[in-house]
């Protein structure tokens, strides 16, 4: 799909783009390309995006009556 729709862009150009999956609203921040032997061929990462920490929910206190 990428090859037919985005033939003028290289892999690194997709960093910071919205995800290509239709129901995903995320941003592409890390790309890893593997060769035919499942070895990492090249890797791109956008280091400017801040990684979100999991949200900590405040502890719910039980009310004693």
Automatic annotation (TrEMBL):
Coiled coil: none annotated. GO terms for biological process: protein ubiquitination. Residues 1-43 form the E3 ubiquitin-protein ligase TTC3/DZIP3 domain. InterPro entries: TTC3/DZIP3_dom (IPR043866). Transmembrane segments: none annotated. Pfam families: TTC3_DZIP3_dom (PF19179). It comes from the Eukaryota. This is E3 ubiquitin-protein ligase TTC3/DZIP3 domain-containing protein.
